[in-house]
Every structure is written in structure tokens, then in C-alpha cells.
Amino acid sequence: MRQLTLSVLLIGLVATAVNAVDYSQQTILVEGSRMRPGEFGIAPDSTVLQDTASLLKRVPGANVNRNGPLTGIASYRGLFGSRVNSVVDGMSWKEVGPNSMDPPLSHIPASLTESLTVYRGIAPVSSGIETIGGSMSAESRKAHFTDSDVFEFHGMASLGYSEADNGLTSSVLGTYANGSHRFHTSLSKEQGDDYAFDGSKSVDPSQYDRDAYTVGYGTKFGAHELGFNYSNNDTGHTGSPSLPMDIIWVRGGIFSTDYSVKLGEGRSLKTSYYYQDMRHLMNNFTLRQNGSMANKYRQNLTTVDGGGLSMVYKMPVSAGSLSLGLEGDQSTHDGLITDPTNAMFYVDNFNGAQRNRYSVFSEWVGDIDEGLELELGVRYTQVEMDSDKVGSSMAGMMPAVATLRDTFNGSSLSQTDHNWDFDAIVRQSISDELTAEIGFARKTRSPSYQERYLWIPLEATGGLADNRVYIGDVNLDPEVAYQFEAGIEYSSNGLYVAPRAFYHRVNDYIQGDEISGTAANRVAGMMNNGNMTVLQFANVDAELYGMDVEWGYELAESWRLDGTVSYVRGRRRDGGGDNLYRIAPFNTRAQLTFDQDNWSIAAEVEAYAAQNDVAEYNAEMKSAGYGLLHLRGDIQPMQSVNIGLGIENILDKSYADHTAAINRAMGSDIAVGDKVPGQGRNLYLTASYEW
Q: Core-most of 65, 213, 362, 624, by most CB within 10 Å?
């Protein structure tokens, strides 16, 4: 077994770990860990979640970079955004916002998420394309086949309230299934105001408003299974105080279908296909004050159209299992910036920016000796990128804009990368209580469309949120990381501990380097009140290293103590050794839980050290250390009814999470340029009923 099961009960936006599987349960699976039955790396708790990414803070080595209430960008061991392979229902969903306002894990509301799987350490090549920063997968709630021909109707309804943001959540899931057919539909509603901190202060804008629904059908006949699913997201006015614009709306959905067949003798074939079509409008004046920018009203309409196909064949080979995969996806991104007060103004931010990936892999996992397991995998990926020509109304009045436009349009916009990944991991069972693991991998990632095709200095940077303007470089090379990992897992007499150490040496790491004396600097000076500072995406050399630990101890029959420890350091290997951007400092969590059959209560301490190793290249701010105390409880007063109650940040501690960014919005209780503070004391209540 390579899997740690962390069961987390979700009531509306609440997560409480339990041992039963039901409609109100959410499960975190940390692949690569070993756990005795009945033990959990995260003790029972309840918490209000605004998106599924919030669960990552309970995974060793993982964290969240947040630019707003619904913009939780997955981070793992110092790498985040497009470097982390985030898959939803088996699909590599693409962000419609060029500033990651809708990262993949935000596409499923937390109340409709059934499980979140995180691969600890080196991600298998089979887990996805471009896994240089790790791999994780979220699964939404769906109907499941029964064992008889009689149809059964099941479901779940939940409600939740959180005081800090006056938030209200609700969701309903209904399923109708027998042994051959399954149907499901779900609805959810999330809405909240600006959240409070430090007593009566608030972060403005940090309100949120989102509706979502899904419908699906599946059938099983003999050894074959076929399924169809459609999910739709309708996000309304939602703040993102760390970005130059806020969400006015995000609309659209994804259609998917999957087919699998068991061919006998341990052989199987799984295929899936999806199509995505989404639209997004953002602006800098509806949810925030425009201030000195009153003569520069800006709105940005962006779109993404894409889809993907996957086929994986498994068969037994030589005391193990061999997987052969063929995968690919395509996406086209457009972004048009306009001024609602000036019909003549426009900027083609991105015009037909394409990023297409075609990949094949082979992976074998099996025993090569008694107690000795080997995993070997290799993947080849061809990344094809292109863009249509761009333009702007400013080119006629500003020669520097015309220079940037003509240089971009005359460059070799069509680019093709040939990327090779491989991994080799050995696991040795030393005894019944102790297992050791060592691994090595080569992982690659091609530039994002923003890094290659951002032609005019703007902040459309995939959610970096550093208050800097960037331009891309069409000729960027892919990143290549050489990853080494070693760890042990010990479990005996109620104690579980699993430390891991890692080192990643990254060649051609992509980040911004300051440039001067160019047309981009002249444009930046005219657009930003004389500030001519521009960063251009460039290839540098970097390294990341650290360790993370998961541990737990069963104190008595009903008492458990669980926790995690995480540390990562990232820095450049050239250019004076500057630090990498937006990396969480040393942090730890510990939770004491008392658990009975129908109720539990838990106290959690969450502590972060100060982060002084910050990135000079984008003037990253240092952050102070802090500690938070949370108290959570849940009760099942009757069968099928669950109630959760808790207080987060019970001491109303004023703090700023280092992985949060700075405030960009005027009119808030936070000064422009200050770190966005964390949420103050929050009392919440949730309830759910299942049938």
C-alpha cells in the first residue's frame, strides 16, 4: 500500500475526519505514504473552506498561494501554479483567467468535492503531464453503482454559516442508481461579504459569489463502463485584492465522457475525453475604488477553449503491473482589454495563444525481491505553442507600443518543445514497522502561454501578484529539474512518523529578470506614472531543498495527536543567489482530538516562522511569524444528521500569511502595498442531512 487515507467530513464547507464513508465525507489521499488501518495523519476537525485548495495546508510540504477568496493556487514544496499538475475529475482544466483567478482546484466547490489526492514526493509519470512541481487530483461527488437491479435514491443536503465574512453556503446532491445505471445531479451556492480581521476591520474587496451545478449519467454492461458528465460554474462579483482587477463573472463549463473495460487476466483499458468552454470578465472599477486611475478604467474579457484525450492500458508484467498511456490536450486563450469610457481603446492581451501537449508514457511497478519494490517510468511530451498577431489602439500614438507589437508579430511565434521525464523509486520494507524509500527523477515543464506570449508590459502573469509588470519571451527553453528524495516511514505501538528529505536542481527555471533601456520600459513608464521597471521572463538556474514530516500518536482509545512539519528553501544558483518567490516559511501543525462514536472535539495549533528569505527580483516583503489556535467539534444527534461548530483563530490573532500577496485595492482597511492579513476570529456553524 502506498496510500495514506485522511478522511475529512465535509458539511457544506466543513471538513471533519471520520472513519465512515458517506455523502458528507471528503477524503484526502496522500499517495506515497504508509499508514496502519484506523490511523490518520490528520486528526478529526471541522473547518470552513472557501475552496478545495484550502485542504492542502494539511498536507506535508503543501500550501496555498491566495490572491482572493476563490483563488487558491496549489503550492507544493516551493513550486506553484502551472508547475503543479492539478487534475479535476481526470481532466487538466485550463484557467480562463491569465492571472489565475480560477485555478483548477477552484472549479469544484468544496462541498461537492469527494476526494483530493496528493502524490507525496516524486510524482509518478502516470499521474499527469508536466509534473515538475508535483501532482494532485480532485474528484467530485457522483453517483455510484449498486449491487442489485433495484434503483436506490440517495443524496445529501448541507447548509453553513461563517461569521467572519457573513458567509452562507448550501449544496444538494441527488443520486439514482442500480447495478447497471447511475444518475446524479448537484447544486451549490456560496456567498459572502468582505472578511473581517483585527476586530472590526475588513479586507475590501474579498466578497465572493458562486453558483455551480453538475449532471451525469453512467452505465455498466458486463466488463464495460461508460459515463458522461457536465459541470457548470457561474461565479459572480468576487474580490481579488492582490490583483489589479476583480472577478465580475466567470461562466462556462466542461463536458466529459469516460469509458473503461476489464479485459481479464489483470488487463484493463481506460479512456476519457473532455471539452472546456469558459468566459471571464474582470475589471478595476466595479468592486474597488479607482483612485488616481480614474482616467484609466480597464476591463478584460478572456476566453479559453480546449479539450483533452487520455488512453491508459494496464497489464501484469513480471511480478508487477505495466501501464502504457497516450494523452494529450489542447487549449486556445484570448484576452481583450478595453475601456468602457473609450470605445476606441483596446489591447490584444493574448490573441489565439495556443498550447497543445501530446504525450506518451510507460510505467512499471512491482516487486524485484521480497520486501523490495521498484517503480520505473518514462514519459515523452511534445508541446506545441503558437499565437496569432496582436495589436493595440495605443500603437498609433505611442511608437514604443508599435515597436513591441511589430517585434512580437515578426518573431517566430510557433514553438515546439520535446520533453523527456523519467523516475526511479525503490522502497524497502526493513521490518513490519519500518520502510525506507529513495528516488530520483528528471521532470520538465514548457513555458506557459503568459511566459511566452505576453507582448506588452502587464500583470497577466498567472497569479504572481507581485505588483510588477512583465513581458514574455517567445524563445524560452523548457525547465528541467533533477529531483532526489529519501525518506522513512515508521509505525508501531500507536506511533506513526514519516519524514522525507528532498533536493531539486532546476535548470532553465523561468522567472522574471529586470530589463532596462527597451521599448517595454518606455511603455511601462507611460502606463505607470513614470515607473519604468519591467521584468522579462527568462531562464535562470535554481534549486529547492528541504524536508517535511507527517506524524501521529494514539494516546488512548479515544485520544489522538496528529501533525505535520514542513520546510523548503528555494534560491537561484546564479545571479548572486537570490531567493525564489512566494515560498512558505518553516511551519507546523498539531492537533489533539477526542473522538467518540457520534461526536468529537479537537484543538489545533498552527504555527509559522518568520520568512526572511525573500525574492529581491520582485521586491517580495518579509513576513513575521505567528501562531493560531482553532477549536472544532461535530456531533451526530441522530442518524444521517451531522452538525459542526467551531471557532477558528480563537485568540483573534493579527497575522499575514507569507503565501498571501500584497493589497492592490484602495478604500480598504489595509494600505495599498501592505500584506493582505489573514482572517480574524471566525465562528461557524454547519449542518448536513444525508439519505
A: 65
Q: What's the pLDDT at 282?
A: 97
Residue-wise pLDDT for 600-612, tens only, equals: 999 999 999 999 9
Alpha carbon distances (Å) from 10 to 170, 456, 634, 644: 12, 44, 11, 9
Contact 168, 154 (CB under 8 A): no
**Which residue do the cell numbers 492581451 mark?**
349
Q: Pick the closest to residue 630 from 584, 583, 675, 679 (CA basis).
A: 679
Exposure string over 643-682, b if 16+ CB within 10 A, otherwise e: bbbbbbbbeebebbbbbbbbbbbeebebeeeebbbbbbbb
If DSSP codes are grouped into helix, strand and coil, which group holds residue 473? coil
Q: What average pLDDT does range 301-327 have in this prediction?
A: 97
Question: What pLDDT is stored for residue 54 in this prediction?
Answer: 81
- Considering only CA atoms, which of 583, 568, 668 is closest in space to residue 618? 583
CB within 8 Å of 295: residues ≥ 6 apart = none
- Amino acid found at 622: K
User: What's the CA gap between 80 and 63, in Å, rounded?
Assistant: 9
Closest CA to 194 of 173, 209, 215: 209
Nearest alpha carbon to residue 538 among 511, 515, 576: 511
Q: What CATH topology corresponds to 139-690?
A: Maltoporin; Chain A (2.40.170)
The confidence score (pLDDT) of residue 577 equals 85
Q: Which pLDDT value is given to residue 111?
A: 76
pLDDT at 2 over 80: no
Where on the phi/psi map is residue 631: left (φ > 0), alpha (ψ -120 to 50), or beta?
beta
- Strand pairing class (25-31; 62-66): unpaired
Alpha-carbon distance values, 335 to 177, 284, 352, 408 (Å) = 42, 15, 9, 16
CA-wise closest residue to 408 among 440, 345, 452: 452
Distance separating the N- and C-terminal Cα atoms of the chain: 32
Instruction: Give me the residue label for grid cell 515543464.
Output: 445
Burial class (CB in 10 A: 0-12, 13-18, 19+), 372: exposed
- pLDDT (0 to 100) of residue 467: 92
Rounded to two decimals, the pTM is: 0.92
451 has a pLDDT exceeding 60: yes
CA distances from 196 to 236, 508, 682 (A): 21, 42, 9
Phi and psi at 371, nearest 5°, equal: 75, 5
Percent helix / strand / coil, the chain, rounded to 5:
10, 55, 35
Number of H helices, E strands in the chain: 3, 34
Under 8 Å CB-to-CB from 653, ≥6 apart: which residues?
626, 627, 628
CA separation for the pair 97, 632 (Å, rounded): 35
Alpha-carbon span 553 to 561, nearest angstrom: 5
Q: pLDDT band for 291, please (50, 70, 90 cuts).
A: low
Cβ atoms of residues 28 and 585 within 8 Å:
no
Asked whether residue 566 carries a pLDDT value surpassing 60, the answer given is yes
Query: In this structure, are residues 10 and 110 in contact, taking their beta carbons and an 8 Å threshold?
Result: yes
Question: Do residues 76 and 570 touch, judged by C-beta distance below 8 A?
Answer: no
Q: Is the pLDDT of residue 654 over 80?
A: yes
Query: Could you tell me where the beta strands, DSSP code E, fall in 464-531?
Result: 470-471, 479-492, 495-515
Q: What is the pLDDT of residues 51-75, one digit of tens each?
A: 778 888 889 999 999 999 999 999 9
CB crowding 374-384: b at 16 or more within 10 Å, else e: ebbbbbebebe
Burial class for 267, CB neighbours closer than 10 Å (0-12, 13-18, 19+): middle
